[in-house]
Amino acid sequence: MSSHNARADSLSLLLFTLRSGKLMAINLLKVSEIIPCPPLTKMPESHPHVKGIAVLRGASLSVIDLSRAIGEQPLEDPNGGCLIVTDVSRSKQGLHVQAVSKIIHCLSTDIRPPPYGAGGSRSFITGVTRVDDVLVQVLDIEKVIHGIAPSKIIEEPDAVTMEEAELLANARILVVDDSQVALQQSVITLRNLGLQCHTARSAKEAIDRLLELQGTKEQINLVVSDIEMSEMDGYAFTRTLRETPDFKHLYVLLHTSLNSAMNSEKARLSGANAVLTKFSSPDLTKCLIEAARTVAAQGY
User: Fold this and answer.
1) Locate the Response regulatory domain: which residues (predicted)?
2) Of 12, 95, 137, 267, which has the fewest beta carbons less than 10 angstroms from its beta carbon?
């Protein structure tokens, strides 16, 4: 195993198909179960991409017509197929797909950013990889869900004390996320706190930005990074920072759409200061205040 791969994190992807038969994938950690499509109750006021509500062990579950949501052809049998039940960003939803193919294990470095300008459903893809020489597209599930049920970001200008506002004013923040939607959500929360920040869409771009700002008055002292990113994920990014003399003291908050309890040990081992599940403005605010307090105490 090369040293490059030894640094990479392994992940499991669930492969599935829609009508076209093209292979798509979702991070297995975001999947709680796979079930045959149950009877659905139509909701008259619901979003056009929501097929209906299923009842699963006494709890209701919104079922998303994934084909419609990403602009693909509808399934041949609208009542067939199966549901991938996802647990993402603090809520569960069912994705209606044609069929589930298999689970594969790969490295985060095997997932490449999607080619630009690949049309239609391209905007719902966060990365691509190859399986047995077939191209597999990795779905941006957060973007799909956000298009149907946007996270409510409440403006809360009074939520912080004077002392907290002063601490935050000294934080020079870089937000790293390969999902445009998730990046926007974080930036809006920061803006509501009266903060400007720098942004990057990949770990590589983030490292370039950190180097560029190093030694200037905008030198970053706090990084908020997604975990599930192609090429270099949040864990590998954090380890890289910890091994770089200029960046080893940076405060790193890992921000993930996965349940953070599942990730806290891995985050700690990579050297992150804290981990938080997306997306809650009040929780992000609280974590940022905590981070700014630590940064101030360390004098960075």
Assistant:
1) 172-293
2) 12
Across 45-63, b (16+ Cβ under 10 Å) vs e yields eeeebbbbbbebeeeebbb
Q: How far is Cα 12 from Cα 28, in angstroms, rounded to an integer?
A: 5
3-state helix, strand, coil in the chain (%, to 5): 35, 30, 35
* Whether the Cβ atoms of residue 196 and residue 171 lie closer than 8 Å to each other: no
Q: Taking the model in full, what pTM does it have?
A: 0.81
H or E stretch covering 68: helix 66-69
Structure tokens at 50: 């929501």
Q: In what order do the strands lie in the sheet with 99-107?
A: 99-107, 10-17, 23-27, 134-139, 125-131
Q: How close are the terminal C-alpha atoms of the chain, in Å?
A: 38
Q: What does the radius of gyration of the chain's CA atoms come to, in whole angstroms?
A: 20
98-154 pLDDT, tens digit per residue, is: 999 999 999 989 999 887 655 555 689 989 999 999 999 999 998 898 888 766 655
May I ask the CATH class of domain 3-148? mainly beta
Spatial CB neighbours of 205, under 8 Å, sequence gap ≥ 6: 176
With 0-12 / 13-18 / 19 or more C-beta atoms within 10 angstroms meaning exposed / middle / buried, residue 116 is exposed
Fold for the domain defined by 162-298: Rossmann fold (3.40.50)
Please tell me the distance from the alpha carbon of residue 200 to that of residue 183, in angstroms, as a whole number: 9
Q: Give the Cβ contact number of residue 240 at 10 Å.
A: 18
Nearest one of 144, 143, 179, 127 to 69, comparing CA atoms: 144
Distances (CA, A) of 50 to 62, 75, 96, 195: 7, 14, 10, 36
